[in-house]
């Protein structure tokens, strides 16, 4: 449930509007929230989670009338509200000054816990695939990835998606490890 | 809905802030409802970070990316993740391996399992056949010393005479090296009959000598010189000083 704004009852109504099946409604809700966060991120906003929650709050406040009158994919209504929230936010203050790039030297020097993540989170085949996928640069990299796709008998796009899913499994552990390194 | 290359280009342009307001809104609407397009956004973010880190973005793209996606918390996290993956990849880079190991690794791939078994059988049969043939081959052996060595020994008789029996098929020559060789040194041997030069691969070698097998048809009665070239790792060659003179009768 997003921060502030509406009651548990309103939240239940919002979920019912998204889908009569509560599990599917929950999935749709998470999907919409994540996409709002990504869109605010790509528009250069800083407090993206707050903006996504503010969007959901506005929609939840209108859910009774929406349930009766709105036709179409609810995700698009959320997007319409998000655009307004963005413009209001933009009027209030200019986009934030970008922070300096992260210091990566520590990561490059101490990666014991990264190795652990690799071993703990991935079976050997996925581990080898992700490391091989990131070998080489530029044209050689493209050639290597085409070669890997051929070896696996999948398209290059299917390979990109497979590696993306491996990244998704690896990311929480690696981010925790990086956080630990940067705090030291 | 399946994606096409144009969709990928659009998402890329979206992340690099290259779209007009209208185009951006259209893409964002689709991102809200199309799972495949949203997944493409997630993948392309990582790929653009790769391109950014490898210096493949233009100056303008780089600036847009730095001020846009990379400046976000998500962008910074993904950038750190990319650094972590690169670090791991570099630590797992295999050490440079020799030619034989690369060939061996190539044939260890599963798709070669059945053909390799077949090849192994053929190879064993071939080895047995060659061994059997060799037993039937007559040969004459000789050890030759380089002209530089014979000169330094005060031995003026630089040319050794080798008698080749009528039933011999091969002349097996062992060439004494003037200096001990480093392990793994490669050689090429040239036979000069004063009219033409013929190259032979060594049949064996150790620290002090290189051997070569010359079919007797190349050495009818006459005078010859053998020259050894050292083949360097970069492909260049250097002649080992001196020649190995001999005559046949």
Description:
The complex is a heterodimer of chains A (184) and B (249). Chain A is mainly alpha-helical and 184 residues long. The model of chain A has no long low-confidence stretch (mean pLDDT 88). Chain A has helices at 8-18, 22-42, 48-61, 63-69, 74-92, 105-109, 112-121, 124-133, 138-152, 156-183. Chain B has 249 residues and is of the alpha+beta class. Chain B contains 8 helices and 10 strands. Classes of the chains: A mainly alpha (184), B alpha+beta (249). Chains A and B meet through α2, α5, α7 and α10 of A and α2, α3 and α5 of B.
Question: What is the topology?
Answer:
The complex is a heterodimer of chains A (184) and B (249).
Chain A: H1 8-18, H2 22-42, H3 48-61, H4 63-69, H5 74-92, H6 105-109, H7 112-121, H8 124-133, H9 138-152, H10 156-183
Helix pairs in contact in A: 1-2, 1-4, 2-3, 3-5, 7-10
Chain B: H1 5-15, H2 21-33, H3 35-53, H4 59-67, H5 73-91, H6 99-107, H7 113-136, E1 138-145, H8 147-152, E2 160-162, E3 168-176, E4 186-192, E5 197-200, E6 204-205, E7 209-215, E8 222-231, E9 237-239, E10 244-248
Parallel strand pairs in B: 1-3, 2-10
Antiparallel strand pairs in B: 3-7, 4-5, 4-8, 6-7, 8-9, 8-10
Helix pairs in contact in B: 1-3, 2-3, 3-5
């Amino acid at each position: 449930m997003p921060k502030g704004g509406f009651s548990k009852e309103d939240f239940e109504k919002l979920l019912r509007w998204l889908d009569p099946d509560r599990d599917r409604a929950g999935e749709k809700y998470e999907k919409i929230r994540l996409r709002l966060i990504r869109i605010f991120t790509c528009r250069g906003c800083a407090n993206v989670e707050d903006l996504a929650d503010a969007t959901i709050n506005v929609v939840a406040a209108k859910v009774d009338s929406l349930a009766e009158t709105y036709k179409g994919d609810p995700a698009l209504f959320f997007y319409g509200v998000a655009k307004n929230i963005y413009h209001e936010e933009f009027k209030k203050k200019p986009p934030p000054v970008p922070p300096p790039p992260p210091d990566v030297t520590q990561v490059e020097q101490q990666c014991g816990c990264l190795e652990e993540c690799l071993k703990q989170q991935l079976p050997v085949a996925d581990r080898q695939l992700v490391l091989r996928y990131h070998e080489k640069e530029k044209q050689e990299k493209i050639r290597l990835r085409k070669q890997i796709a051929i070896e696996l008998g999948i398209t290059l796009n299917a390979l990109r998606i497979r590696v993306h899913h491996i990244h998704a499994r690896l990311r929480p552990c690696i981010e925790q490890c990086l956080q630990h390194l940067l705090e030291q | 809905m399946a994606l096409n290359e144009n969709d990928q280009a659009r998402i890329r342009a979206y992340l690099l802030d290259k779209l007009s307001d209208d185009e951006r809104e259209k893409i964002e609407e689709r991102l809200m409802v199309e799972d495949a397009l949203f997944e493409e956004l997630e993948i392309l973010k990582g790929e653009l970070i790769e391109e950014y880190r490898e210096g493949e973005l233009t100056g303008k793209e780089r600036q847009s990316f730095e001020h846009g996606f990379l400046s976000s918390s998500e962008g910074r996290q993904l950038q750190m993740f990319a650094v972590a993956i690169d670090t791991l990849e570099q630590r797992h880079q295999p050490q440079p391996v020799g030619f034989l190991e690369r060939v061996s690794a190539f044939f260890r791939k599963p798709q070669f399992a059945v053909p390799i078994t077949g090849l192994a059988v053929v190879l064993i049969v071939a080895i047995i056949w060659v061994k059997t043939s060799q037993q039937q081959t007559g040969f004459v052996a000789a050890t030759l010393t380089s002209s530089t060595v014979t000169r330094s020994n005060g031995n003026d008789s630089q040319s050794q005479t080798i008698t080749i029996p009528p039933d011999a098929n091969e002349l097996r020559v062992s060439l004494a090296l003037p200096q001990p060789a480093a392990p793994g040194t490669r050689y090429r041997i040239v036979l000069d009959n004063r009219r033409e030069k013929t190259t032979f691969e060594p049949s064996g070698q150790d620290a002090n000598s290189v051997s070569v097998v010359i079919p007797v048809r190349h050495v009818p009665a006459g005078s010859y010189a053998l020259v050894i070239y050292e083949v360097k790792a970069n492909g260049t060659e250097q002649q080992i000083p001196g020649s190995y003179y001999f005559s046949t009768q």
